[in-house]
Design a protein that fits this description.
- 2 copies of one chain form a homodimer.
- Helix content of chain A is about 40%, strand content about 15%.
- In chain A, the strands form 3 sheets. A 7-stranded mixed sheet of chain A has the order 2-8-7-6-5-3-4, sandwiched between helices. In chain A, strands 9-10-12 form a 3-stranded antiparallel sheet, covered by helices on one side.
- Chain A is α/β, with parallel strands linked by helices and about 400 residues long.
- In chain A, helix 3 runs antiparallel to helix 11, helix 5 packs parallel to helix 6 and helix 12 packs parallel to helix 15.
- In chain A, helix 8 links the parallel strand 5 and strand 6.
- Chain A has 15 helices and 12 strands.
- At the A-B interface, helix 1, helix 3, helix 4, helix 5 and helix 6 of A face helix 1, helix 3, helix 4, helix 5 and helix 6 of B.
């Protein structure tokens, strides 16, 4: 015990280095707290802080007004009949699949789906069929292929229990026509889940308008909330399936294990909500900023954005063979790029990656975006001579 | 949208009233942040804050030193071969049951088990057989009944897939002899899960010494961490069952959906860890404080603690028929007690309850405990005349 105490002192004083830098990691850009949320963090940081006046249901707590948020504001926001809090988008996807599928059932995903969608299916024991993308350079999902794949699954004697679309996907920021996918799914009677981890809280998303039976969002990824927290919405048709109650404890919802993201995450989600609504109104500007940035760095020889262009999202995938060529001759190898960016006040590119990487310009000021674009250009110019 | 923005402004400025009071809610006492954790909250409150340098596995992150914490300190602390972070104790229990059970399988719980254990079993589709307690007033679990029940299940042609003990239970704070239960389970070859939501982080708990194959703890309940977060430990025998990897994404663990409690919760868990280790050394004093308190309020006619006495835990269940009698004649009815306590700077008793309630004295100073005991006595004396 004495030893363990000694060796654990280091955990007391941990600092977040990345705070001092412009952070391009797409994971991080949408989860920065609003000023309103930041102001109350200290009051609500203790363990189960929101549960002082809980009568047994997280989503029915009146003080703080979680009930109003979850049962009134959130469904309006998501365009769903009912909504709940989850521990994250992935946990929401698992809850949907676990409610609809038995082991051995088949589900249909876009092939750009996040790894956690596949892992959730594995946890459920469901087989995944994928809608292919168009491959390099667009990696586009053709919505009509959902119909084709549903037919295929049926022909093989199975009934697809769920169709999922990643909106946008987390690699290329491609936004497929969700409404069209939803319409196809409805025609075939296949429940449709929209994974909005990178859209809900950034851009307008309305499940009803997009013909989605389920929608998941991520508080820490895109709703300016402290993690882990997600949102999950559904229709009146699926409410009792997804949020079915325990036979033994009548008020507890089985799929949520009674309660989910208790404590600071829900308070920050609520406190940031007005800010999130406001920023969604500025979405067009975010897209035009991303386009400006991509356009700018496409001026460097060989650099080009992948995914559907012009981009419709702040998350983008960039091919940078020129940096890869430099890395082969640089003594830091693949790490040179990270080091050079850091020297210019920038972090968030995956360490060691030079051939391609993804980044996000979300909520960066135009000055910051210019700094980033200039940094890439400067680094290229600095090492131009290494290339023959 | 305009309306929603208007109506959501109220969420921006939420304050936690209970902070100004002595909080007796057992849920809250063990989750108060340590000073060290509180100091760094602001740095780490953004969304996915710990993931700046993530290579794909939460538990392998080196900066901040999550890897060292999860793979070295935590197993030592829990007395397990392997450990991971979860979104909470209930999520840990579900992960264990989901790893071991098929639908229709049978699991064995103590009848004092937390509702979330039963709901987790319902989510898995497992049938629960319970080891009865001795009922009023001790509600004691006879460890030998685990053997009896296992025999019964086997006689009915089933194999119990898991045995669970709630250590202590969340109503009476009873600590059964976990080691003995573990020994019985081992003799029968039944995996044994210890639910330490109210013990891990408060009192010494070593899974190996208690013959437990699995242990879950709660960061927000008992480890001075911001919620939601839990810990989950297991043996080398079950490591590959519980933490099995995705066939498609080799580094992702299926049962954890790739990653769990990302962000502030893990940082506060780590920052509070030295404090938690220290306070565990003061456990005997916590127990003696609880005994002093129970002894003191047992001086009020009719008031007595339930559960095994003298208590071995800070969480206690108290029968208070005298307050119930007063409530019948008080114009505030059942809410009078809450109101009177609040007037004396005390919250945390379930609103409306007067006949019995649970409370915790954990980490209260002796002065605070005296204030609470005096408050109950004063309230009794104030309304003594209402009783004939």
């Amino acid at each position: 015990m004495e030893n363990l105490i000694q060796q654990s002192q280091k955990f007391k004083d941990l600092h977040r280095e990345a705070l001092k830098y412009i952070n391009l990691n797409p994971l991080q850009r949408g989860g920065i707290l609003s000023d309103a949320a930041r102001k109350i963090v200290n009051e609500w940081a203790d363990g189960y802080s929101v549960c002082d006046y809980c009568g047994g249901c997280l989503d029915l707590i009146k003080n703080p007004p979680i009930e109003e948020f979850v049962h009134d504001k959130l469904p309006k926001f998501l365009g769903t009949y009912a909504a709940r809090l989850t521990n994250g988008a992935r946990e929401g996807k698992f809850a949907v699949m676990h409610s609809l599928c038995e082991k051995g059932d088949t589900v249909l995903f876009d092939s750009n789906a996040h790894y956690s969608s596949f892992v959730a299916a594995e946890r459920v024991g469901a087989e995944v069929v994928t809608v292919p993308n168009s491959e390099y350079p667009e990696f586009k999902i053709d919505e009509n292929l959902y119909a084709e794949k549903i037919e295929e699954i049926k022909k093989a004697g199975k009934e697809p229990k769920l169709a999922l679309l990643t909106y946008p996907d987390g690699n290329y920021g491609n936004l497929a026509d969700a409404k069209k996918v939803g319409k196809i799914c409805r025609e075939y009677g296949v429940p449709f889940l929209l994974n909005g981890a990178y859209s809900v809280g950034r851009m307008p998303v309305n499940a009803k308008k997009l013909n989605a039976d389920f929608v998941v969002g991520s508080g820490h990824k895109s709703m300016a909330a402290s993690g882990p927290i997600g949102v999950l919405g559904t229709t009146s048709e699926y409410e009792d399936v997804l949020f079915r109650k325990s036979p033994k404890y009548k008020i507890k919802e089985i799929e949520l294990l009674g309660c989910t993201s208790r404590g600071l995450p829900v308070i920050t989600l609520m406190a940031s909500f007005p800010h999130v609504l406001e920023r969604i109104r500025g979405w067009d500007e975010e897209v035009s900023n991303a386009r400006w940035f991509l356009d700018k760095i496409s001026g460097i020889p060989g650099i080009k954005p992948l995914g559907i262009q012009p981009t419709e999202h702040d998350l983008n995938f960039i091919e940078t063979p020129v940096f890869y060529e430099i890395s082969k001759k640089h003594k830091k190898r693949g790490y040179f790029l990270q080091k050079e960016l850091k020297a210019r006040g920038i972090v968030g590119i995956k360490p060691g990656l030079t051939n391609f990487f993804k980044l996000s310009t979300y909520l960066l000021t135009t000055d910051e975006i210019k700094t980033v674009a200039d940094a890439f250009l400067e680094i290229y110019e600095k090492y131009e001579d290494l290339l023959e």
